[in-house]
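Here is an idea for our session: we take a single protein and study its fold together. To get us started, please write out a protein record for me. Start from the sequence, derive the backbone structure tokens from it, and show both lines together. Go ahead whenever you are ready, and we will take it from there:
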Amino acid sequence: MTDQIQAAAQTWATKQSAAEGLTPLVGRLYRENDVLLTVYGRSLLNKSVTGIIKAHRYARHFDGAELDLAETLAIARQLSEMELGPSTVDLGRLAAAQRSTGGDLAVLLADQLAPALGQSAGDSDAPRDVVLYGFGRIGRLLARILIDRAGGTGLRLRAIVVRRGGEGDIVKRASLLRRDSVHGTFDGNIVVDEENETILANGTLIKVIYSNDPSQVDYTAHGIDDAIVVDNTGIWRDDEGLSRHLACPGASKVILTAPGKGSVKNIVYGVNSDAILPEDTVVSAASCTTNAITPVLKVIGDEFGVQNGHVETVHSFTNDQNLIDNYHKGSRRGRAAGLNMVLTETGAAKAVSKALPEFAGKLSGNAIRVPTPNVSMAVLNLNLERETTVDELNAFLRETSLNSSLRNQIDYIHSPEVVSTDFVGSKRAGIVDGLATIVDGKRAVVYVWYDNEFGYSCQVIRCVAQMAGLDMPSLPVMSA
């Protein structure tokens, strides 16, 4: 028993040592080359030593064994000596490729990372200015993401635009950025300058601009130019309303964090993001639910065909609802959000067809708001074109989550223990719960968890990067 205890302690110490060696390489590659290192989609940036070890343990779900930190450390060291440009590099997949081929590591990396070779981050254009119009739940999470990635991504948060809420407004908004009841404390340092109306967060200087009208801001007066404005208010959803932002000097593009109306393109990143053209000035990132279900529906439709179906969303309450019973323009949303399940409508099912035209007229949908503050679930009840089994469908969805072009949108879990809070902070658009899958011939029921705040915000940032024309290949390249 003593030998086992000593062996366990030594193994842990070895892992700690390797993780400590990996930490500075992760930071340096990100700051100097704009290269984000991941392990099977799990980012290693700003992770603690224990967090890095846990990310390597996560690989057991895919390779059947815990990923050896010595392997990834050796790969990262070699990456630090290469002239890599902006990209996301998966150490887990590179390690698996190295084990399968057994060839020279340098040759393998040169082949697998070819799309990112030959251009350093310093050769790229200056970061694109980003303005957040509105600073609510999604706005503050977008700010956190942009600040966290300020060393790379080619995006730079320059300002937030809000209506003045009264005395001490900027201090209160900074406090809401600093502390969040759902997503925890901001990781870093925040300094407020009330006189100059700025917030300094981890070296990112953010100007707070007060305005009641999207067309009445001169961004150039604050040194902001060619900015992408992210409208988080949802007040304007059509091209005419959103184009009011473009009347502002210094603003060149607008993206809406809500479903767009009329001619506004509704984009689900990874599914129809190639529809964002250089000349587009106004697009929508659709809704959190649409982003969660559309990638899953696409791959199921491509593989098995979908005749029709129904989407039922079990959705956390939102700021649109009342804390206690009171008047609301909606039929049921006036009832106390923390005490009731509230049946309401959702346009997410119909909105799927805006990204996937082949689903037009095939899906119905409803939503039930429940007394939880974050993380929702979509239940996809589908009639397929061909028969399948639980094992076949789950194996397909699991493989898709690992080795497809939608691996950053679709996650997969097969655990009897998970509940909604386990998915707070998930960066994927949706997570398939394999143990809940039901199949009866051509009928399938698939359960998809999603962090309707943070997971959606990650999708929005991906769309913003696409609008900015940033090319961030995910390597090694996976099949479609």
